[in-house]
Amino acid sequence: MDRYTEQRLFGLLARASAALILAVLVMVVGVTLWRGGRVFITDPAVAVTPPGSRYMLDGGGGFLHAVLGSIFIVVPATVVASILAISTAIFLQSDYSSERTSDVINMFLNVLWGTPPIVYGVFVLTIIIAAGAQTSLIFGTIAIAIFQYPIMTRYADEALRAAPDTVKEASYGLGATRFETARMTVRAALPGVIAGIIMGFARGIGDAATVLFTAGRSTQMPGGPFDPATTLPILIFEQAASFNAEVRSHAYAASFVLIITVLALILVSKLLAGKFARFAPGGRHS
Amino acid sequence: MGTTETNRSDGSSRLDRRLLLERLSSYWLVGAGFFAVALFGLIVLTLVQQSIPIVSEYSLFQMMTSSNWDPASDEFGFLPAIVGTIYVTVLSMAMGTPLAILAAIYIAEYAEGRTKLIVSSFIDVLAAIPSVIFGLVGLIVVVPFVGDYLAPAVGAHSIGLGIVTVSLVMAIIVTPFMISLSVESLEALPDELRESSLGVGATKWETIRTVLLRAAGPGIFSAILLGFGRVFGATIVPAMLIGGQTAIPESPFDAGETLPTLIVNDFGELMSIPLTQSALILVGLTLLVVVWIFNFGAMLVRRRLQRRWQY
Amino acid sequence: MSNETAIRTEDLEVTYTGNREVTALDGVSTEFAENKLTAIIGPSGCGKSTMLKSLNRLHEIQPNAEISGEVYLGDEGIYDTDEPLPEIRRRVGYVPQTPTALPLSIYNNVAYGAKIHGNYSNSELDDLVESYLRKVNLWDEVKDRLDDPGAELSTGQIQRLCLARSLAVEPEVLLCDEVTSALDPISAEQVEETLEDLKEEYTIIMVTHSMDQAKRLADDVVFLYLGELVETNDTRSFFENPQNERTQEFVKGHTAVDYDDEPDEESVTDEQPVATR
Predict the structure, then answer these.
(1) Which A-chain residues 2-31 have CB contacts (< 8 A) with chain C?
(2) ipTM of the complex
(3) Do the Cβ atoms of B35 and A88 come within 8 Å?
(4) What's the CATH code of the domain at C132?
(5) Which residues are registered as beta bridge partners of C21?
(6) For residues C187 and A202, what is the distance between their CA atoms, to the nearest angstrom?
(7) What biological processes does GO assign it (chain A) (predicted)?
(8) Hey, which of A125, B104, C49, C176 has its CA 20 to 30 A from B117?
């Protein structure tokens, strides 16, 4: 094969690969919206109706319990995880830790980042059993927060690192303490930090493996933090292969809700990043 | 006169407050900083401690090589799940890696302007779609495709669910992470590398293959390992699409199981049979250890590559 | 300029179309003599680098550069041609401003282009690598460590390695973009000495912002100002008897003021891809 043919061939292959991946994306989103959309046309209230008494068998009622479960589990988890993540990221900057310390912590963060979510699920369940408690909403929250923590920390750390040193210098130059300076740096890095929190939220709301054995797989409306609950991904996971078409259709509708939520979150994160970029002296990054 | 006095004392008490806040916040930040270490330690300790019952009862080697998984009669053979995991990981990576690297090359080296912006935002979107949705679409689209077309076309029999189906879906799920990391490494390369190579008359592709892929090699290598970790620990998609069969698969078109699906399928029974719980926690520990070994190995290899392929 | 012309430009115009349009070269027609070293000089941002890169179409890797006019290599145009682009770039080699080792061994850095273009046996390649490393006065320094990564050399050595790499594909013209500006004085002197040796055999076109360097090395000088060709002459006449008023000012201004501030010329060429990101 002569070198110009090779050059054309691989140029074509590169284009084809990108096209294939985009085509798959369009297909995944399309199929989800189409199948879920049809369910919503016949039963518009399915996402805001509480489940019937024999929900898993006949699909009576709707899946409001999973919608609420997702919100009650993921929102608090995101709040806890983002506070921890931002704090860790601040500590990782040179004002608080030596390069050696931050290298060690980063190594552990990387391991946590690569840890399969199912391991977090098993870990939290082990704790539940050891504590003699039962699977419930609060443990789902804990599991999701653990899962989100390394993701958000990485985003926040990257954002803080990218913030220009001049902000720090200016702040210290005015006699600010480390903490006051850190707050200023976070402000300068806000677009990246916020994008990280939203991405963490999106990952948390979409994950099933962490909450599968920790939140309780309930088929009723969530009661309190110590009652079993369920989330949209769990609902989809359990109902997608059901033999009952009615039950299966709820999985499609739930996927519709989930994918719209995730797409909206990405959109919001991009818009917010643009909006907050005004505070970032280095312009927008990421 | 009085006002200056007040101001000064007010100022010093304000300074005290600021310094107190500084001290308190630094305690919190140090705590948060080491939270990652503590969390990791706690997870490992818990899993190790809970795995002890099964390990003291059966030898690790025996469990790894036995293909009989039947907790009810005290048989804990992991081999089918191990084989399934290897099958899925190898197949998905074999399909996903070239796809991801080529797509990354397209985005970093070929696409321009608006096209580039659109394609890379689409990749971001793909990365954020929950895997349970991939599983669902897999059930709707890939299962019939494999069962009715792909398997017959290669002369195999398949019910649609199975290792190939999981691998096809995982190959797609894993690409966006590999793509964005690879694109980052390629774009971080200085233009001088491109100019130097093109300047001696290399074609664009020769430049990419010989120069850019090497110079970005350490980053791309990390991307591949990250993808590996994701496939290896993937839970939901295999659980939905692999068909759950506790025997060693004879062909990739067979149903099977992976280490994570073993946990998903059997964790419900654990309350009744205590050793099962320990066995499954051992599986979880195995996942963690393998990912850890890979991370560590990746670091070493990366360092080597960085020296060998420096520019 | 009585010598044979190696490469000449005709009405060369380069425009960067980004969010704002920048005309980097505005209708430049000039000639570069064979086997001589021509220096392109001029203030920062006047299109020197663009001029250089347009001579082997390297500016085309910036996504939004538009060009009109023509460059003639011998008798044939390099824009309106059937000849494949890589072949043109082989014939007109380029050494970038920053010393850049390819991510290959020292040996393969030199052999890289040769391997692409021809079928050499291993022993032929060995000879070729040795002869070109000798040509840039690098052989004695690296002969015992040919398998080490090229990037482990010092920057001055890397710059000479780049020269060897470019020469190894036997170009007709060699373009050098401020090749000493990133080097310490001693390394810069070594590279200058190498160029001094090479200009007997090769047509070299060099961008420089150091007038002293142009005086020391160049046979001819091309003076660009804001994308336009102001004056071109042999070095002696150029500095001693400048014809154009602007040249006079520039030459005089240089002797008075130290014209060595970092060029922000890059902002013209490099800003473009950033803007599209």
Answers:
(1) 3-4
(2) 0.91
(3) yes
(4) 3.40.50.300
(5) C17
(6) 54
(7) transmembrane transport
(8) C49
